[in-house]
Amino acid sequence: MNVRCALASTALLMSLLCPSAHAQPVDVQVALQDGKVVLDVTASVAAEREQVWAVLTDYEHMAGFVSNLKSSAVIGHDNNALQVEQSGEARHGLLHFAFHSVRSVELVAPQEIRSHLISGDFKSYEATTRLTAQEGGHTLIAFHGEYVPNRWVPPGIGPSLIKSETGKQYDELIAEIRRRQGAAPHPAAPASSPASP
């Protein structure tokens, strides 16, 4: 039971630290390397890059559309560098547990998000998310993260669970991007020209 709880905690914390949004195709790769978890995600999103960026960096409102978050706030700001604090309660089956993290986030709008852990439930955390505009109003997301968890992650079930929970996180964020796309005001129709006398 303790091992399952540790796995679920690690997986959900990782997914919260690497928010993204996806449409098909999406690819999640997880590997364990000498106690380090290496996570790579690529996804093609049916949204403009600025729309994807707006959701990925909306830390003040993220608790409203990420189900495991109880709170999310920017607690420090220096030009394009933020300090983001998040806490919540994650659930996996019958298990539930609290978590907390503080991250340093460097923003290079609207193309790159670089972050590392200041404090929380990892020994270390480094990640970069890159957004590339594509034809047809799509955006390619490429995420690479490397983590050293405080808890042991067994090589068998661990990567599978992390991959599953990361996919769940993607579903919630793509839903928010679609919601905002639907709520965006449509451009007004051009006014009719008055008839010539």
Task: Describe this entry's structure for a reader.
The protein is of the alpha+beta class and 197 residues long. It has one domain (2-179): Alpha-D-Glucose-1,6-Bisphosphate, Chain A, domain 4 (2-Layer Sandwich), CATH 3.30.530.20. The protein contains three helices and eight strands. The chain has helices at residues 2-17, 49-56, 157-183; strands at residues 23-33, 36-45, 69-78, 81-92, 95-108, 112-120, 122-133, 139-149. An eight-stranded antiparallel sheet has the order 1-2-8-7-6-5-4-3. The longest helix is centred in the C-terminal third of the chain and has 27 residues, at 157-183. The relative contact order is 0.25. Mean pLDDT is 81; it is low at 186-197.
Counting DSSP H or I runs of 4 or more residues, the number of helices is 3
- Low-pLDDT runs of 5+ residues are 186-197
Calculate the terminal CA-CA distance, rounded to whole Å: 84 Å
Hey, roughly how much beta strand do the residues contain? over 45%
Count of folded domains: 1
Radius of gyration using CA atoms only: 19 Å
Give a concise summary.
The chain is an alpha+beta fold and 197 residues long. The chain has one domain: START domain (Alpha-D-Glucose-1,6-Bisphosphate, Chain A, domain 4, 2-Layer Sandwich), CATH 3.30.530.
